[in-house]
């Protein structure tokens, strides 16, 4: 049997691309998933040459209703011991009344439905291999965020879903699968440009995708924390949220968004 593979969704750019590079540097075979086939093929060719690993490319729109099933079919009998459930996007920042309903629906399909269905689809494989599941949430998951209302709510889903799954697995099979909700703050990727938003116009502190992934990879080695928040500032901010009421936390988030 060949060495196991790690699946990375949203691998064509940003945080997912950095995950693919970091896993490849550890000689991990990879399955790369996103819509842009050309970018995935370029990355795959580079990683094969640099690290002598096997890389499969599966171009796919994960927002489609059959995405998780199609991904399972395309992965076939490759042994999977890691899933980085990372693909996601946000609708343009702004008041809810200005959100385009169709785009919000697409965002929910990708950020919530695909994340949950991909996690569930590969759970048996991860149990079998005592593997790792990383669901990429966001620091926006910890409080209501005015002007990013729908996006932050999708990430609250990912955070709660992941923590609940982790608790279930701890009961049935302690330590078998390592489950992490990764909660980055603002990260310098094309995520902002894609949502027609400018991170510079917010009061968020910004990290690089490399730093976010380095924190996640370190946590994956230790296999302890189920919620991973990159950066000292963000960890302190999360602690502070415990002392605020929910309306106060929402008001502070509104100021930070600065819309
Ligand atoms: N950047 C931030 O400030 C930030 C902060 C917290 C959390 N996050 C989360 O981190 C994750 C990665 O974001 P990022 O910053 O790396 O964004 P990014 O640079 O825009 O990358 C997003 C990735 O997702 C893929 N993708 C988008 N829609 C897809 C679809 N329908 N089907 C399949 N793949 C799709 C994109 O590739 P294609 O276009 O080729 O499909 C791309 O590879 C997201 O879940 C995001 O919510 C980001």
Q: Could you give a short description of this structure?
A:
The chain has 259 residues and is α/β, with parallel strands linked by helices.
Give structural notes.
This protein has 9 helices and 7 strands. The chain has 259 residues and is an alpha/beta fold. The protein has a single domain, classed as Rossmann fold (3-Layer(aba) Sandwich), CATH 3.40.50.720. Helix 1 packs across helix 7, helix 3 runs parallel beside helix 4 and helix 4 runs parallel beside helix 5. The structure holds NADP nicotinamide-adenine-dinucleotide phosphate. NADP nicotinamide-adenine-dinucleotide phosphate binds next to helix 1 and helix 6. The site of NADP nicotinamide-adenine-dinucleotide phosphate has 28 residues, from helix 1 and helix 6.
Write a concise keyword list for the protein shown above:
single chain, 259 residues, alpha/beta, Rossmann fold, seven-stranded parallel beta sheet, 9 helices, 13% strand, binds NADP nicotinamide-adenine-dinucleotide phosphate
> What percentage of residues falls in helices of 4 or more residues?
40-55%
Within the CATH hierarchy, at the fold level, what is the topology? Answer: Rossmann fold
Q: At the first level of CATH, what is the class? A: Alpha Beta
Please state roughly what percent of the residues sit in beta strands, choosing from under 5%, 5-15%, 15-25%, 25-35%, 35-45% or over 45%. 5-15%
- Total individual domains: 1
Structural class: alpha/beta
Main sheet strand line-up? 3-2-1-4-5-6-7
Total beta strand runs: 7
**In the CATH classification, which architecture applies?**
3-Layer(aba) Sandwich
Termini gap: 53 Å
């Amino acid at each position: 049997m060949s060495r196991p593979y790690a699946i990375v969704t949203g691998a064509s750019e940003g945080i997912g691309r950095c995950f693919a590079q970091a896993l490849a540097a550890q000689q991990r075979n990879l399955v790369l998933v996103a819509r842009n086939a050309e970018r995935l093929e370029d990355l795959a060719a580079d990683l094969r040459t640099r690290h002598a690993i096997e890389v499969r490319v599966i171009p796919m729109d994960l927002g489609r209703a059959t995405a998780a099933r199609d991904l399972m079919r395309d992965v076939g009998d490759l042994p999977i011991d890691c899933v980085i459930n990372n693909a996601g996007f946000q609708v343009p920042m702004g008041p809810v009344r200005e959100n385009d309903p169709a785009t919000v629906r697409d965002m929910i399909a990708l950020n919530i439905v695909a994340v949950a269905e991909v996690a569930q689809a590969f759970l048996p494989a991860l149990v079998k291999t005592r593997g790792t599941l990383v669901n990429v949430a966001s620091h926006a998951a910890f409080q209501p965020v005015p002007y990013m209302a729908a996006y932050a709510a999708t990430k609250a889903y990912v955070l709660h879903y992941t923590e609940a799954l982790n608790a279930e697995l701890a009961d049935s099979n302690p330590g078998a699968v390592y489950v992490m909700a990764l909660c980055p703050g603002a990260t310098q990727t094309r995520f902002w440009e894609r949502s027609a938003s400018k991170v510079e116009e917010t009061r968020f502190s910004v990290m690089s995708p490399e730093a976010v992934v380095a924190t996640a990879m370190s946590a994956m080695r230790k296999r302890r924390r189920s919620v991973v928040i990159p950066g000292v500032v963000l960890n302190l901010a999360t602690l502070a949220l415990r002392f605020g009421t929910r309306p106060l936390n929402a008001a502070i988030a509104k100021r930070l968004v600065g819309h």
